[in-house]
Amino acid sequence: MKRLFPILAVLTAVLLAYALYLALVVAPTDAQQGEVYRIIYYHVPSAWTAFLLFFINFIASIQYLVSRKPSTQAAAKWIVIAIGVVGVVACFVPQVQALLPAGMRPSAVATTVLLIPIFYFSIGRLFPGDRLDVLAVTTAEVGVVFCTIVLVTGPIWARPVWGIWWAPGDIRLTSTLVLWLIYVSYLVLRRFSSSAETQMLAAALAVFGALDVPLVYFSIWFFRTQHPQPVIGGGGSMDPRMLHVLVISWMAFLCFAFLVCWSRFRLELLHREIEEAHAMESLAGEGVASKASLPLNRSPR
Amino acid sequence: MNGIRFLFAAYIATWVIHGVYLGSLVRRFSRLRQELKEVGKEK
Questions:
Q1: Nearest CA in chain B to A277
Q2: If you count Cβ atoms within 10 Å of the first and of the last residue's Cβ in chain B, which end, N or C, has fewer?
Q3: Residue A299 has pLDDT above 90, yes or no
């Protein structure tokens, strides 16, 4: 696996360079916004990547909470299967389709709902035991980085297009800022709490924090907002050449996020290994009582 | 509308944020490796 990392890093760098070339040279200029619209090739993929990472964090946190209470495992499994089946079937019932906002494709909603059981069972299988918690902290931290980029590049685009850096009270902007604050508080909790229950508390916070993700995503359908309408899964009318560049750009950022998560995951494992070694050393040596309560659940500083 | 300045500002800001984060990962890795060596020596 270690040999694979540099190869993937080179491939990702090439893909990012290619995406940059497409974004700056190949993609056509927007008739209304001019060149500044090209910010979407970084802004939108960063937002989608952050949402995906927070979604993985949500699933890993639920799995972690469930794994702490074995009696709930079977019930959770069946609830997730029911959500997947009922959600997908409901998307194709005319009465439910009538409730969806104009422009929102039922197939897009069904695909999103289907991701819940797929991710739930895949993550549970790939990350057993405490590795779920390691995955949760990894995706939260990298997700915050991508969300920060969204919050920085958005106002840079808004200034020349809207004439203002920030639209106070706009639901899409405010909910994104709230999302960022929730995950920053999640990381602060993990960093500064030394309680034995920190992991459980963080997982519970992540479950509630993730509820903000659908609010951010669907806010442009359900509320009046200054933010542009969606380009995928809705009634957007983007030039196919622009869409092509956007998808390539997202693929490049996904590969990059994967490599960053991989590094952060290894860092967290190394940190826990050292903390464990320190704890064992303390137990073996003198002053067992005072040193045995080393904070095993802290993230590396 | 000439937004070139804003376009480059956004792209540069993106890579500065990624760069700072990657730098923090490298720093944390090197500190932990050092710590791991010390733990090994003590053993």
A1: B39
A2: C
A3: no
